[in-house]
Specification:
This protein has 269 residues and is of the alpha/beta class. The protein has a single domain, classed as NAD(P)-binding Rossmann-like Domain (Rossmann fold, 3-Layer(aba) Sandwich). Strand 1, helix 1 and strand 2 form a beta-alpha-beta unit. The longest helix is centred in the middle third of the chain and has 29 residues. The protein starts with 8 loop residues before the first strand and ends in a 20-residue tail after the last strand.
Length: 269
Amino acid sequence: MDSGLRDKVVLVTGASGGIGGATARLLASEGARLVLHGHRNARALQALARELPTEALPLSADLTREDEVDALFGRALDHFRRLDVLVANAGIWPPEDTPIARMTLERWNQTLATDLTSVFLCARAFFRALEKTRPEAAALVIVGSTAAVFGEEGHADYAAAKAGITYGLTRTLKNEIVRIVPRGRVNAVCPGWTATRMSSGLFDPAKVTRVLQTRAHKRIARPEDVAAAIVFLSSDKLAGHITGEILAVSGGMEGRLLHLPEEINPREA
């Protein structure tokens, strides 16, 4: 597949994670040059940069801090002199199921800062970089979640943050980017449950069975499944007339079961 991404400069946030790493590897196989962002896992980020067959610049930043985001994009521009694509992938998923009546303001604020505000700061820095370089085409791919579509019980903070970037930002910024780059595009991918290090503690058979009852494909997504969708949307050659779209990568998910059959009493229904 010729994606047209050879020699394009792509910044991938959260590149030391499962989806970010898979995306970086696939982009590198297409000949893209990469800025690999990480925060707390510098060793994995350095190892990934050495592994890739194309030029890769590993950089660390706390994406919830305005000064560090601006410095990240400044260093990327100083090195490559351009940025063609931003993959806004970094984020957290708090593992504890916490109903909103029990949720602390601290957790709410931390999740929104990491999953929503960080994407705003990165998108803003990317658009400012485009104002300086004015490439022929550009793309922003935002990594949301099926929680943005269906909600997620016990994770109102995560669902709200992902809904904000998936719908509000994606569909606003697709109109703003063309004021800078006429062939600019902004799209979102929404992974469902994906087998990454972050989700590795969740794979008990009963939970897997219950989750897979909600989708057509009876398997959990792999990071490579999501990476393929991200690379497709990053490519002006393959997806040049696609913008403002939200692409679910969830095996045909239709929602989550709220109750198992044995939990329902038909006589009381």
